[in-house]
Amino acid sequence: MVALPIDTAKFTGIICAVAPTPRIANRETGQVRVDRDTGQTVYQVGLCLMSGRSADVVTVNVPGEPSGVQNGVPVQVRDLVATPWENEGRHGVSFRATEIKPLTAPAASSASGSSATASGKGAGQ
Description:
Blueprint: E1 4-5, E2 13-22, E3 24-26, E4 31-32, E5 42-51, E6 54-63, E7 75-78, E8 81-87, E9 90-96, E10 99-102, H1 106-118
Parallel strand pairs: 6-9
Antiparallel strand pairs: 1-8, 2-5, 3-4, 5-6, 7-10, 8-9
């Protein structure tokens, strides 16, 4: 199946709805899933994706524990993809990202960017 990239810039907000937990590969043994490329434990994070007046909560898999990501925290998601799947008559979409981290205070960086632009030292000058 083909992974479909998702442009996270189109969302009006992304908030952690369910804190990160290790993804279990084998429920009988409790063995956790490990990322093939990095060897890190795969974590699942419930994210609320907001767009306009609607919102959806999706579970996103990410290699490595997302540090500082907790319920209610706005987050930044890097390389989010959706992959449709089908298995024995069941089907759905799985979501994966390369990184999920808390959103740093955008007000502070915007304010400093605005003052730089106002003083004539902004981008393109």
